[in-house]
């Protein structure tokens, strides 16, 4: 296992933002107040796109919403979300990219700013064992309390969490001959800058410009 392949999730392996779509799903199924929740969700999404999002503020909003529901109800809701939203959005090209690295024997992981409740079933569906994501606090019964454990997995936090995860398996980043990171967002420039093979994947305008200036390759998975 000489190589590492890290993947962002939203707009990288998926052509959608799973966090935003989960919020839209809650509105559509009347699980939350549609007007107020949609207003805040849209506001946070716009901040994310602009690069001005406070990740802790957003995660406390998202996890606070999850805390309203018993875990069994949340899991049932998520199963419906997977069936209606996520599974139809997964493209063969994304599965093929993951499979290419898995077939090569690379260590493959998804690293995402979206919380683990939303993303763990998506990672399983994509066949990826390792997931680095924002961790919601749970009580003894598995219910989500609304609090975030540790620091957010966004921006520079992705670098911190990657190093911490690799430390748990006893293989630092420098030990890999080739380390890839695929991402669509300029928010991920800190982690893109420390791997040996950054790949701007479906890049937004800011990342596309940055990648072009540095000679990073660009990959467009969803040009159909």
Automatic annotation (TrEMBL):
InterPro entries: HAD-like_SerB, HAD-like_sf, HAD_hydro_SerB1, HAD_sf. Keywords: Hydrolase, Magnesium, Metal-binding. This is HAD-IB family hydrolase. It comes from Massilia agrisoli. It holds the Pfam family HAD. One of its GO terms (molecular function) is hydrolase activity. It comes from the Bacteria.
